[in-house]
Every structure is written in C-alpha cells, then in structure tokens.
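Predict the 3D structure for this chain.
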Amino acid sequence: MASTIFRKSISSPSNIDLVQKILNHLEIPCRRKYSARFGTENVIMRMNEAYSSPTYNPWVMSYRFMELNDMVKAKRYAHKNTRPSWLRKEIVRLVEAKKEAREIFDTLLEIVRAKR
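Done. Predicted structure below.
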C-alpha cells in the first residue's frame, strides 16, 4: 500500500478488479485511480478506512502499519512547509549522504519517535 496524507492505496498490476471487489465486499469505500507516474491502476481509500480494514494486520507490525498507526492517531497534521528547522537540516543531511527514500523515512521516523 502506498500513502498520501489522507489516503492509502493498493497497487496491483494484474488483479485490481479482484482487490476492488474484496474491498467492496468488506464494505470499505474505495475508488480506482490510474497512476501515470508508475503506470499502474490503484484502489484508493481513506486512511481511517484502511486502518480499520483487515488488510492491515497489527500482529505483522510492518513499517507501513506503524506509519499508518501513527498517522491515524495523530491529533493534527502539519501544514505544508511547516517543518521544524532541525527536521529540514536532517533531511538535507540524509539526501546529501545519498540515502535512499525508504532509509530517509525510517531514520526520520525513529528520530521523531525518540523525541516523544
């Protein structure tokens, strides 16, 4: 599943119809959207509905579940371009160190969790 601020999506190159039928059967509102960037068709749902769906198993505790868990339980979302200066500096440092996006995300998530 991929994410944006308020939505989660499931990408499946070959059986997107089946994924949508399963979600509809589970009464999870969703819609299909084509991603020109990746050339795939996605099924998109609201973040809260994705969190309550059985596709996220809390026993698995994948990084995607932990990310979604943190987002759903957040009291508010930051507005665009309102990052604290320490966060901006850390992102720049990691990008200049040629870290991959997933590693940058994981590092930032660990820092934020440690600050709580």
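The chain has a mean pLDDT of 76.
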